[in-house]
Each structure stands twice: as structure tokens, then as C-alpha cells.
Design a protein that fits this description.
- By secondary structure, the chain is an alpha+beta fold.
- It has 2 domains: about 1-250, no CATH class; about 415-560, Histidine kinase-like ATPase, C-terminal domain (Heat Shock Protein 90), CATH 3.30.565.10.
- Helices cover about 45% and strands about 20% of the residues.
- The protein has 13 helices and 15 strands.
- It has helices spanning about 1-50, 55-65, 70-90, 175-180, 250-300, 315-345, 360-375, 380-395, 405-420, 445-455, 490-495, 515-525, 555-560, and strands at about 95-100, 125-130, 135-140, 150-160, 165-170, 190, 200, 220-225, 230-235, 240-250, 425-430, 460-470, 475-480, 530-535, 540-550.
- The protein has a 5-stranded antiparallel beta sheet.
- The two termini are about 75 Å apart.
- Mean pLDDT is about 80; it is low at about 345-355 and about 505-510.
């Protein structure tokens, strides 16, 4: 879809750019054309004015026409020819200018034309009239070579004693504007009168005599129309006539098609490069990572026989070497543990026939801790040490009495042991104070935190615990909050039921036993003066709140005896 969108946007953009570029080029061409024809018409009108009855050359013509003897006629003819020839020196683009007898069509000044003109000048296509001059559109020359294209003007005046004379002037236009030049490019030109009738055209379809829509065009304004498969840019001159430049519609379509061919090859090339990059990256990254994943899975399942492969990539080869070292260490450690277990089993076979008492279990853990330290297995030693302290506490080895401070210390060791197995965050905030040294129930906090670990980690995998002294109520407050899925109303009702050791019929397994146990021992130890609240909503976690009273000396002695 993205490639399609890019293609559509690119097509619209290239079409707009191509269209604007074409119109700009046509505008430049028609401006140049109009400038040349305007200059030609202004020069023609200037020459025609000089040749008029009140003009410099017109005065000479009147003298010639009024002459009676042959000598005066001869001198007048000579003077006229000199003046008309001098016009060519002043305006180099002047093809010719002459006077013609309006009745006979014969030139008054002889030997100025290459061929007999007759009255053919009268049939030139007219595009406008100005100050008595009939201005003609571009056409082949009447006075010179017919291959030469000119602009012309013709007027009829009365000279001398009523002689009607036609004045005719031609000025050449550039050949690249008439379409008879190699520089014409893809353009064809049109010239129309004020009403839009075509007076000159080198277009093969739009011919002379047809009418184009020029309505609504002010002078010095542009208009774009489409006609007969051509895009035409029209421009109305300052003096009223209209010039046009026509281009076939399929001209810019060729560029667009050429662009589509290029973009197709670019897309194919880009796609090939992308495929090559994907294959290269797969061989460079994915294959080593897959091998790494398989190695870790095999190590996790206890398969240590496979050895690493060389990938010829320094980083991955180094990583796989580290995995080999880790595999060897784990394998050696497991073999060592297995051998130690076999030795322990052989040496303690007879002792296992008897009931293992707590004293023997603690001594065995001491031995494991000592062996781990001897083998410099610090993590195993620390793990066993925490386990030993926890077992000694739970079995009452360190005495029956306990305090809230000691209960928190043992809980932290228990959480540290659980974090080896489960990856979770345990946040505990304990406010320091004398209330921490009050006697309390042994195994008060561990069952609650164990429930939170087993059922309440959730996606966040976080447990928060707070312990502080509420001065206003004179109670110790303990809160334990998990990030699990919470409890339903049915599960909360089951938790609030009296503690019962017959749990085989429970659908929720052991989930509520710990909470009911804590409620039972709290009620017994504090003689009903404590409270335990369960706040939970499905999908939002569970929060346990415990309120413990401050013990008086008398009550403390009674509870320590318990």
C-alpha cells in the first residue's frame, strides 16, 4: 500500500511539474512570438505613415503624380525609388514597400519587386484595422520570395488630384516562429483576429478559417484551451489580435511514461537490494541468534553434548565461547553436586532409616554451606546460609518468642530465596521505632508474602510492603500489596471463613489457607484485638492490611508466655 501511495503521489506530482513546465515553455514561446509580431506591426504602421498623404514619402508621391512633363516624371520616379530603398536601410527586416494603382494593381515605382504582384496583396488575411491600415496576419511574401513569411499592411489613399493609390508594406518575421525552421521544436503557431478566427496556422489539424474560443480575454492576457487533441495557449496582444501556441496532448504523456519506466526499474532494483539485505542480515544475525537460543534451550534441559559452531563473526564467536564456558561450568557443577549427593547418600544411608530431626537438617545445611565455601561457590553458600536461617527460625530453633523486627528480617531472607527462583521486585518500607520490638506471632508475614508471590505477581511482577506506627490509632499498620489479577467475591468469602485444616475440598487449592491461618493465630495471640482486611478487585491486584495493637507490659508477658 505504501508503494502504491508513493506511486500515486509521484504520478500527480510529475504530472503537475510536467504540465507547469510545458505551460512555462509555451508562455515564453508565445511571448517571444508576440513581441516580434508587435514590433513588425509597429514598424509597418510607421512606414505606412511616412508613405501616407501627409508623410515624407507621400509628399514625394504627390509631386510625382502632379508632374506634367516627362523629365519631372522621371525625377519623381527616381526620388520615390530612392526614398523607398532608403527605408530598407533604416529597417533591415523590411522586405518591400510600394505604391500600387488601385484600379490596375500595377506598381507605381518600377523595378522594386521580384515578380508581378498584381492585386494579390488585397487577398491577404486581415487580423485588424488601425488608423485606416488593414493589418494582415503572417503569410508568404507577395513582393519577394514566397518562401519568406512576412507581416504586412495595406491602405488606400487619395493623392494629388484624386488619384486612388494603395500603399503596401511587408516586414519579415523570424522563421522559427512560422514553423519553417529546425528550431521550431514541438510547437505549432496560430494567429487569429480579434474575434478568434484563425488567419494563419501551420498546425496540421487546426486550419485557417476555424474559430477558437477567445471570449473573456483582455489585452495582455493568457488563456489555455484544448482543441482537436492539442493543448493551446492563447495570448491577446496589446493591439488586439491573438497569437497561439499549440502542443499535442501526448507530448507530456511521453515524459510521464518515460518516468514510469524509470520508477519501475528503481522499485525493482530497490526491492532486489532489500531482499539481498534481508538474506544477508538473516545470515549475519538471525542464524547466530537462533543457534544461541537453541544452545540455551539445550543447556536448560540438561543437554551438554553439543558444541558451538564458528560463524566467522567476532562478536558472535566470542558470545558462543562464553556460552561454552558457562555450559562447562554448569556441567561440572552438576556433576560435582551429583557426586556430592551420591557421597552423602552413601554415608548417610543408615541414618536415613531414622526420622530426620531438625538438628540433623541444620547440620547438613552447615556442611553444604562449608563445601560451597571451600569450592568458592559464594552464591550457593549465601543461598544455603539464608535457607538455614529461615529453617532455624521456622522450626523454632532460635527460640519461641519473636518480635516484629525479627519477623521482618526473616521475611527479607525468605524473599531473597524466592527471588532466585522468581524474577520479581519486592519493595519494603519500614518506619523505624520502638513498636518493632514488640512481641508478635511467629510466621506472621511469610504466608502472606508467599501468597502474593504465587498468585499476585501479574505482568508488573512487583510486591509492595509498608510497616509503620499509626500514632492516631496507637496501632502498628502492615500493608502488603501485589500486582496480580485480584480476587473474586467468592474467593474473598472463602478467605473470611474460619480456618480449617480440611482443605481437600477447596477449589482454589492452598491460596486462602495462609490468610486464614494468619487470621486465626492473630486472633488467638492478640485475643481479638487485631484486624486483618482484604481489599481486592478483579484485574487490579490485592491489598492485605493488618492492624496490631501496642502491647502493655502485662499483655506482653502474657503473649510471651503463649
Amino acid at each position: 500500500m505504501s508503494l502504491l501511495a508513493v506511486g500515486i503521489v509521484s504520478y500527480m506530482t510529475i504530472r503537475m511539474i510536467q504540465n507547469n513546465r510545458l505551460l512555462d515553455s509555451m508562455r515564453i514561446y508565445v511571448d517571444q512570438m508576440t513581441q516580434n509580431t508587435d514590433n513588425a506591426y509597429f514598424d509597418i504602421l510607421n512606414i505606412a505613415s511616412q508613405m501616407g498623404p501627409n508623410g515624407l514619402i507621400g509628399t514625394v508621391l504627390e509631386t510625382y503624380l502632379d508632374a506634367n512633363d516627362k523629365y519631372e516624371k522621371y525625377m519623381g520616379q527616381k526620388s520615390l525609388r530612392t526614398e523607398l530603398i532608403r527605408l530598407g536601410y533604416i529597417n533591415l527586416k523590411l522586405v518591400g514597400a510600394n505604391y500600387f494603382d488601385s484600379a490596375k494593381g500595377t506598381p507605381i515605382v518600377r523595378h522594386l519587386t521580384f515578380r508581378d504582384v498584381g492585386k494579390s496583396y488585397i487577398g491577404n488575411p486581415e487580423i485588424l484595422q488601425s488608423a485606416g491600415n488593414r493589418i494582415h496576419s503572417i503569410h508568404p511574401s507577395k513582393l519577394s520570395n514566397p518562401q519568406t513569411f512576412v507581416c504586412s499592411a495595406e491602405r488606400r489613399d487619395s493623392f494629388g488630384t484624386g488619384n486612388l493609390v494603395d500603399t503596401y508594406v511587408e516586414i519579415e518575421v523570424p522563421t522559427d516562429l512560422t514553423g519553417h525552421s529546425e528550431k521550431k521544436g514541438p510547437y505549432t503557431i496560430l494567429q487569429m483576429d480579434e474575434k478568434g478566427f484563425v488567419k494563419f496556422s501551420n498546425n496540421p489539424v487546426i486550419v485557417q478559417g476555424q474559430r477558437l474560443s477567445v471570449g473573456g480575454m483582455d489585452r495582455s492576457s493568457y488563456k489555455v484551451i484544448e482543441r482537436e487533441g492539442f493543448k493551446i495557449l492563447l495570448y491577446r496582444s496589446k493591439i488586439g489580435y491573438v497569437n497561439g501556441v499549440a502542443v499535442p496532448d501526448n507530448l507530456y504523456k511521453k515524459d510521464i511514461n518515460r518516468w514510469w519506466g524509470k520508477i519501475f526499474f528503481v522499485i525493482i532494483g530497490t526491492f532486489c537490494i532489500f531482499l539481498i539485505s534481508v538474506v544477508y542480515l538473516y545470515r549475519l544475525v538471525c542464524i547466530p541468534l537462533n543457534s544461541f537460543r537453541k544452545q540455551m534451550i539445550r543447556i536448560g534441559t540438561g543437554q551438554f553434548d553439543e558444541r558451538r559452531k564458528a560463524f566467522e563473526i567476532e562478536e558472535f564467536d566470542s558470545l558462543m565461547q562464553e556460552i561454552d564456558q558457562m555450559r562447562n561450568q554448569i556441567e561440572n557443577l552438576i556433576h560435582g553436586i551429583v557426586e556430592k549427593e551420591k557421597n552423602i547418600q552413601r554415608t548417610s544411608y543408615e541414618k536415613l532409616l531414622y526420622q530426620i530431626n531438625p538438628h540433623f537438617l541444620l547440620n547438613t545445611l552447615n556442611s553444604v554451606q562449608w563445601m560451597a565455601q571451600m569450592k568458592k561457590q559464594k552464591e550457593i553458600g549465601d543461598f544455603v546460609q539464608k535457607l538455614k536461617v529461615l529453617l532455624a527460625y521456622n522450626l523454632g530453633k532460635e527460640g519461641a518468642a519473636t518480635t516484629l523486627r525479627e519477623e521482618i528480617r526473616i521475611l527479607e531472607k525468605y524473599v531473597a530465596l524466592q527471588q532466585v527462583r522468581y524474577d520479581f521486585i519486592f519493595e519494603i518500607n519500614v518506619e523505624e521505632g520502638k513498636y518493632l520490638d514488640q512481641p508478635t506471632v511467629r510466621m506472621l508475614l511469610q504466608p502472606l508474602v508467599e501468597n502474593a508471590i504465587r498468585y499476585g505477581l501479574g505482568d508488573e511482577e512487583r510486591i509492595r510492603m509498608q510497616v509503620f506506627w499509626d500514632k492516631k490509632r496507637s496501632h502498628t499498620v502492615i500493608t502488603i500489596q501485589d500486582s496480580g489479577q485480584g480476587l473474586s467475591e467468592k474467593e474473598i468469602r472463602e478467605i473470611n471463613e474460619p480456618f480449617d485444616y480440611d482443605v481437600e475440598s477447596r477449589e482454589t487449592e492452598n491460596r486462602g489457607i495462609g490468610l486464614r491461618y494468619v487470621k486465626a493465630v492473630l486472633s488467638s495471640f492478640y485475643e481479638g484485638e487485631t484486624s486483618l482486611f482484604v481489599n481486592s478487585k478483579k484485574g487490579e491486584g490485592t491489598k492485605i492490611t493488618i492492624l496490631l495493637p501496642f502491647s502493655t507490659d502485662k499483655g506482653r508477658e502474657r503473649r510471651e508466655q503463649k
